[in-house]
Each structure stands twice: as C-alpha cells, then as structure tokens.
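Quick log. Single chain, no ligands specified.
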Amino acid sequence: MNWIDEVKWDAQGLVPVIAQEAASGDVLMFAWMNREALEKTAELGRAVYFSRSRNKLWFKGEESGHVQTVHDIRIDCDNDVVLLKVTQLGHEPDQPGIACHTGRHSCFYSVLQKDAAGHAAWTAVDPVLKDPESIYK
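-> predicted structure:
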C-alpha cells in the first residue's frame, strides 16, 4: 500500500496537522492538509497546507516569508492526525521564527487564567514579534 493511502482522511478529504518546532518542541500551529498538500510537503520538504477558507493549497510563508522547513512527517497511532517537525523561518536570525498570522512565534499564545475573584479569561502571554500590518500587505 502507498504511504499516502494509509492516512485516514475525513469526509472532506482532509487530515488535521500539528506543526511543532523541532529544536524547542513548541507547538506552533494547527492546520489542515488534503492529499495534494501532504504529497507536496513530503516532496518539497516545506510545509504546504490546505486553506479551507480559500479552498486552495497554502504554501506556508507564501505571503509572509515565514516558511516552515520540514524535518519529519509523523502520523499518530490511528493514522488520522499528522505531526510535522519543522524549523520556522522568516524572522531575525537570533530570534524565534513567526508561525502565527498575529506576528507571534506560535498560534497558541493565549492561556486560560483566573483573576482574584475566580473569573477565567484568555490572556495573551506571548509577545508580538512583528506587526502583522508589516507582514501582510
């Protein structure tokens, strides 16, 4: 059996994908791939996703320059989630790369925190590394 045929695609022909930074272990983002995106990612060694909102392939970094170089492509035990181990490129050489369209290192920058009264709220805890207005023109 061809490796791509072992993936369990959902009803829309998609599989969820987690991008994890190889060096730090940081979870950078969650996205979707269709068959073509996964094949291109394996072929090119760079992350290619499927944009559900635009209904087309999305080469990570095509607008922002924040490309993800792929080191490993893994699949979970149920063959229904893909994990990419990546190097996130496109920021200052000695700074973390930017994976999020908000200009942050990771899309997972908000933490659920409780105030003194016990009320919970999402709080952004990671800094904006680059103003998104200057990334996307």
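The helical segments are 35-44, 132-135.
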